[in-house]
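Hi Q.,

Before the meeting this afternoon, I wanted you to have the magnesium ion prediction in hand. No need to reply - just skim if you have a minute. The sequence and ligand are here:
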Amino acid sequence: MDGSTLRTKLPDQGATETWGGELAAVLNPGLVIGLKGPLGAGKTTLVRALLRGLGVTGHIKSPTYALLEIYEVSRLYLYHFDFYRINGVYELDDAGFGEYFNAHSLCFVEWPERALGWLPPVDLWLELEPVGGGRHLTVSAGTVEGVACLERLQKV
Ligand SMILES: Nc1ncnc2c1ncn2[C@@H]1O[C@H](COP(=O)(O)OP(=O)(O)O)[C@@H](O)[C@H]1O
Ligand SMILES: [Mg+2]
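Predicted structure with the ligand bound:
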């Protein structure tokens, strides 16, 4: 741990869910969180755990087809994007997605690498890698706000 990168092993889905709940506790409005990793790596599973940790109840759909699912908890807007299926960032502009990245929202983005250049700075990168039956997770900060989050996470 060098202050801006953290690595951990998530041996099963339950570990991913527990870890997501811990990260949720140190997030604040205005953050953009990018999730990387191949199909089936557990990106949606992790966002679901984060959303639960932030207080979302009820069914949480994967935004694979809709590109975006929106939640509101105590006047905080939570946006869960999946850019796997986009053909170009013009689609994101056409859909008006840009305005969702603001100081009052928290944005989770699967496949952020498909919208680099369009996305505002990613504060936290979560990269999942399937290893054996489990996952390795690398968390890195892309901004000072991201570094602050990682520091809070170390203190939990
Ligand atoms: N830490 C883990 N170890 C093993 N399997 C996991 C872990 N986390 C999630 N899974 C499983 O891997 C799959 C991940 O699917 P999903 O979250 O939709 O992936 P993605 O969004 O990256 O395509 C699910 O079947 C889930 O049960
Ligand atoms: Mg997914």
